Amino acid sequence: MEHYNMNLTLKVWRQENSDKKGKFETYKVNGISSEMSFLEMFDVLNEQLIHEGKDAIAFDHDCREGICGACSMYINGKPHGPWELNTTCQLHMRAFKDGDTIVVEPWRAKAFPVIKDLVTDRSSFDRIIQSGGYISVNTGNAVDANSLPIKKDHADAAFAAAACIGCGACVAACKNSSAMLFVSAKVSHLALLPQGEPEKESRVLNMIAQMDKEGFGGCTNTGACEATCPKGISLSNIARLNKEYTLASLISE
Amino acid sequence: MTWKQVFTSSVGQKLTMGLSGIFLILFLIVHAGLNACIWAMDGGVMFNRAAHFMGDNVVPRVLEIGLFVFILLHIIQGLMLEASNRSKRGTPYAVSYGNRGSKWYSRSMGLLGTIILLFLVVHMVHFWIPSRFTGVAETTLPNGVEVHDLFSLMMATFQENIGVVILYVIGCISLAYHLAHGFQSAFRTMGVHNKRYVAMLKAIGYGFSVIVPLAFAMMPISMYFGWVK
């Protein structure tokens, strides 16, 4: 692909903290290379702001290779920007043209309050995981490979669900701000494996209870989450979660 | 875990919507099937007889109680969910996510449901209230049984006023889109994730949401244009 430079107009959400009201600020960035990542473009903008003596824009990032789930920008109306199966850090500036205006917002959900600018507090996801997204095993020697036979298709489906990086794009895209795709990925991942079997029922009941407590909306199966997920987590996980929940709630004492 | 905890959880509320929705889908089949008797072209004899059976026999009368329970549950739970889901965003987005990955009607179930509810109020005033409470002119079937002449009431309702026909067609279109999402969503909510069954239920769902509302819409239309004798 041909390399090119571009001048852009950015409209970025600035908010001092969760109590203050935020608003959009407009910035011009010039000479952006099409080879840069979206976050590198933000680094350039922040350098510019620091030189001007202004407050740099706060945004979450960590690995910058699309696997940690830290980056979280709602770019031109889509979490993680225009590309499919992609995180903000892996979005490259060749997705944009010279002269474009790009609107950047934080994830918007009451369960993800803004800490500053584009950084939101996603610790609600951590608390959901703590409520049941684990297995309890005694540590000791590693068991022999294949001592626990697992069906290949179950292993594949569990692995696909485990690809969830917990970025929260599903919540950001959902009209109900529902966390069902995230919770369903975590529940499916463990429910499909024999290691997850002993805590199968308590896991799904506790994780849903925690999800509701955190103030996420309900799922209405629209599919917006699946379309925006950078890891391609399937909507069928939500149906599996529904099944797991229904069965567990019927047999629980 | 108490039953209250089950049915007030977000998944439990979905289950209430799905299960009551499936009951209402079954009701639609019965309703459309019985009403299709207007096309028997016998001056409404078969239709009036069917309507008389439904109003007189104990089995449909008991099922009717269930119908009212489920319809109220579906409406109340639906409106509550819509209000609760809408309250979860806080600050709205400046640029909306739009159509990516989801159909407009799947995001508009509350709106479509409300249109159907308003239609239902008018529909009950037209037929159910006269038939149960305020009275309908009687007619005698060939076998000598006196019944409500609901066929003539239908003809009178739909032949005189194009506005009523348009209202019914709007109600049917809303129902069609409501079902296009609701049918398959109900089964997903009940936990169907097997790809073969999901594909099958989607196909049946789309077929159902076209055929049944179309049959309903054709009733006022065919009466207005005088295709029913």
TrEMBL record, chain A:
Annotated GO biological process: respiratory electron transport chain; tricarboxylic acid cycle
Superkingdom, taxonomy of origin: Bacteria
GO MF term set: 2 iron, 2 sulfur cluster binding; 4 iron, 4 sulfur cluster binding; electron transfer activity; metal ion binding; oxidoreductase activity
Keywords, alphabetical: 2Fe-2S, 4Fe-4S, Iron, Iron-sulfur, Metal-binding, Oxidoreductase
Database matches in Pfam families: Fer2_3 (PF13085), Fer4_8 (PF13183)
Residue ranges annotated for the 4Fe-4S ferredoxin-type domain, each copy included: 155-185
Requisite cofactors: [3Fe-4S] cluster; [4Fe-4S] cluster; [2Fe-2S] cluster
PROSITE patterns listed in its UniProt record: 2FE2S_FER_1, 4FE4S_FER_2
TM helices/strands, residue ranges: none
Keyword Iron carried by entry: yes
Range of residues in the leader sequence: none
UniProt record similarity statement: Belongs to the succinate dehydrogenase/fumarate reductase iron-sulfur protein family.
Protein name: Succinate dehydrogenase
